[in-house]
Amino acid sequence: MTAASGPGPDPVDALLSAWRTELPDVLRPTTELSKRITQLAGALDAATRGVLPDSA
User: Fold this and answer.
1) Got the DSSP string for 1-56?
2) What span, in angstroms and rounded, lies between the C-alpha atoms of 25 and 19?
3) What is the pTM assigned to this prediction?
4) Is there a contact between 26 and 19 (Cβ–Cβ < 8 Å)?
5) Tens of pLDDT along 15-49?
6) Counting beta carbons within 10 angstroms of the beta carbon of residue 32, is it exposed (0 to 12), middle (13 to 18) or buried (19 or more)?
7) How far is 43 from 52, CA to CA, in rounded Å?
8) Cβ neighbours of residue 15 closer than 8 Å, sequence gap 6 or more
């Protein structure tokens, strides 16, 4: 029996891979988490803008 594999690489994985190669000194233990939160925030913003009226 083989272990189930998770989802494939995503844009954050690609970004972190590039940074490991080009800018390894900028990576911190929280870099991956903060980039994933930023991606999630952008997706949530886009989704809510399509449903909720603009309150400005």
Assistant:
1) --PPP-----HHHHHHHHHHHH-GGG--TTHHHHHHHHHHHHHHHHHHHTTSPP--
2) 9
3) 0.66
4) yes
5) 899 999 998 888 888 999 999 999 999 999 999 99
6) middle
7) 14
8) 35
CA separation for the pair 46, 41 (Å, rounded): 9
CA distances from 45 to 21, 25, 42 (A): 31, 31, 5
pLDDT interval class at 54 (50, 70, 90): confident
Residue found by looking up tokens 């929280």 in the block: 30
Give residue 19's Cα distance to chain centre. 14
Count how many residues are written for the chain: 56
